Task: structure prediction
Amino acid sequence: MSGPKPTSGSPLKAAYALLGAMTAITFAGPFALAWLLSGGERRGWPPDRTVEWAGAAALLVAFAATFIACLTVRMWLLKPRASDARSEPSETT
Result:
């Protein structure tokens, strides 16, 4: 029962860094959005300044990118070994 194994300690650290970034965006994002929307002639939604729209869009893109990266981290971070592919039993009946 052998699966993909990390090639070194570095991929595991990268996965934890990605998880930390996702946590920071999830918890700090709403506060950053509230701070960003507090300026201008009118407070609240919808934003009346271009910088508010750009900041809200950037925050949404950062969240979506880290969310997708967290969901797909196993596909792009852990590579299967060549020896694991050869050692799997064949299905001959």
About this structure: The chain has a mean pLDDT of 79. The CA atoms of residues 46 and 53 lie 9 Å apart. Helices lie at 9-36, 50-71, 73-77, 82-87.
